[in-house]
Amino acid sequence: MPGPKTPEDQPEVDAAALFGEQTEGSAAPSLADAVAAAEPEERLHPVLSNEEVLAARAKARSNIEAQRRKAATTDLIKAEEERLAREEGLVTGDGVKDEMVTVTLDLAEHSARIVLSGTPYYHGHTYTVPRHVGDTLREIQSRGHNHQNDIEGKGLSERMRRPHLTMLNAKTAAVTNAPQMVA
Questions:
Q1: Phi-psi category of residue 118: left, alpha or beta, with phi > 0 → left and psi -120 to 50 → alpha
Q2: Do residue 120 and residue 143 come from a single domain?
């Protein structure tokens, strides 16, 4: 059984430094300095110095902050793009109506183009647009043909009898005999 500890067994600690007393010719050390002098410095990593560990932690913190800023910027850009698309009429918020479709315009003889929300769509051209825009283009196209038939004195049945000869290939989705733009 070990005996009582003697003063020789204890590390020497400057009592004046511990209690903040100033000795001759020395500046008043802080309590942290006195404790640091009395205790050996605890290593934060077995290989790196404490300064290197603290620098690595600061760099990791700055990397995480940069990732947060980048994610916030990406989210803001996405939200702004969605807002602008809604303003331009490109999206409705309904997944079915916002689905992209391909429309080839075959306008009546009296029409050269359709203008929707300031965007011109020309006869004979094929456009990939959201379904709600494609539905509107097809409706305007149909009403234009109905108007042309009324002007010419033809009924709807006459228009349906006229052969269009436009064919779609089911395998390749190729369009043949589509109306062409005449220069």
A1: left
A2: yes
Among 88, 119, 150, identify where a domain stops. Answer: 88
Range of the domain at 166: 100-176
pLDDT digits (tens, 9 = 90+) for 155-176: 767 666 666 677 888 888 888 8
Alpha helices in the chain (DSSP H): 15-18, 31-38, 50-88, 131-152, 156-161
Residue 102 near residue 127, CB atoms below 8 Å: yes
Pairing mode of beta strands 113-116, 126-130: unpaired
Phi and psi (nearest 5°) for 44?
-85, -20
Question: Do 13 and 35 form a contact (C-beta atoms < 8 A)?
Answer: no
pTM: 0.44
Residue 7 lies in a domain: no
- CA proximity to 126, closest of 165, 87, 180: 180
